Backbone:
């Protein structure tokens, strides 16, 4: 979503250069978002970030699922935006003196100091860390060892995180005066939306303190929301900030189920490109040109390759647009003709016209030939 967000912002900036009558309505969409929770998260990050910036007049959510499943997601993204677009007015002295710390047109992670919590490095160029509350940690304690890649890493109450109201000069000065790296965050309950609050905090932290991002500053309000609303709100808020280069750790508060809140945390980090812990899939939404059943094939490929951490696989329905839209996938599975599949390494077609019933196996062979295949681990995993 980073590239999509930057491209739309650039389009608006270029249109504005041409004068006020170049105010064409803008249509937003994240193509090749894929399916399931990951597809919904990627869509919410891309479309939600831009709506949050005030960009966009129509939207389309494109999932590799039956089209009827796209509409509720699109409606929820718009509903979330309507709910959370209240003004976040700031005192004039703050707006006049604060310089944004991020570049809207190109990604660069904000510089921050490194500190160690619970034996884990955080900040700087270290991995984004996943925090949870003591209550959720306790609820999961009996199965943490079996949670594989979805493990909680740090208990927020033990992190010594410092709450800083970014509108308060005194609070900001206190945090900037600390001479040891300290994790900082925005306090719950303040009357600001999440994205502007954290952008302001990041811009005013001249001392490069690492930042803990939150999905909501009103955690109690989330209790009455359905899962989709919570998922899309968290994805928009945290994903949008990560795409601006802001943040070093995350805490999901809106989702109350302990395991589910961790799954959302890691999936948002992966979708935003901040921490890769599983295979990444790019899949087209299918159309009249699609040459095979995209949903069942994507599922088959996912089952065979879902353990290849960091490998990016594109599943595209045709060669007309598929190769051009595979982004930077490592391998591509593309419909070449009815019943025939072309396999790609990067953007190069390396195996042509493979019978469809052999193609998943040949894809695995290709991944092996390029040294990216590992056997799936045999391990006991916990349901989350
Ligand atoms: S089948 Fe081809 S044209 Fe249709 S959505 Fe997929 S890649 Fe795009």
Residues:
């Amino acid at each position: 979503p980073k590239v999509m967000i930057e491209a739309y912002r650039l389009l608006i900036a270029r249109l504005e250069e041409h004068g006020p009558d170049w105010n064409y309505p803008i249509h937003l969409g994240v193509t090749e978002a894929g399916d399931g929770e990951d597809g919904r998260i990627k869509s919410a990050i891309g479309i939600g970030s831009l709506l949050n910036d005030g960009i966009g007049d129509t939207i389309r959510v494109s999932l590799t699922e039956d089209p009827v499943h796209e509409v509720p997601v699109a409606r929820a993204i718009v509903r979330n935006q309507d709910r959370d677009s209240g003004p976040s007015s700031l005192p004039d002295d703050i707006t006049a003196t604060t310089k944004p710390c991020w570049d809207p047109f190109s990604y660069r992670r904000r510089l921050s100091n490194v500190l160690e919590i619970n034996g884990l490095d955080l900040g700087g160029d270290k991995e984004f860390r996943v925090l949870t509350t003591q209550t959720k940690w306790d609820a999961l304690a009996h199965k943490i060892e079996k949670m594989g890649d979805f493990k909680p890493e740090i208990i927020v109450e033990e992190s010594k995180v410092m709450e800083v109201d970014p509108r308060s000069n005194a609070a900001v000065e206190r945090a900037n005066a600390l001479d040891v790296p300290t994790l900082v965050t925005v306090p719950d309950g303040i009357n600001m939306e999440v994205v502007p609050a954290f952008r302001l905090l990041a811009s005013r932290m001249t001392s490069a303190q690492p930042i803990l991002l939150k999905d909501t500053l009103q955690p109690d309000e989330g209790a009455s929301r359905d899962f989709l609303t919570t998922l899309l709100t968290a994805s928009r808020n945290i994903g949008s900030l990560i795409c601006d280069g802001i943040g070093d750790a995350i805490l999901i508060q809106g989702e109350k189920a302990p395991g589910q809140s961790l799954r959302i945390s890691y999936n948002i980090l992966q979708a935003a490109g901040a921490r890769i812990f599983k295979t990444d899939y790019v899949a087209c939404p299918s159309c009249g040109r699609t040459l095979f059943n995209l949903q069942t094939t994507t599922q088959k490929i996912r089952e065979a390759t879902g353990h290849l951490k960091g490998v990016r696989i594109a599943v595209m329905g045709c060669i007309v647009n598929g190769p051009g839209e595979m982004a930077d996938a490592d391998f591509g599975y593309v419909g070449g003709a009815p019943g025939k599949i072309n396999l790609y390494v990067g953007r190069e077609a390396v195996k042509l016209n493979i019978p469809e019933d052999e193609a998943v196996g040949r894809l695995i062979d290709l991944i092996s030939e390029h040294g990216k295949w590992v056997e799936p681990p045999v391990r006991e995993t916990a349901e989350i």
The chain is about 35% helix and 15% strand. The mean pLDDT is 92. Residues 284-287, 289-290, 316-318, 320-322, 325 surround iron/sulfur cluster (CB under 6 Å). Residues 36-52 form the longest helix (17 residues).
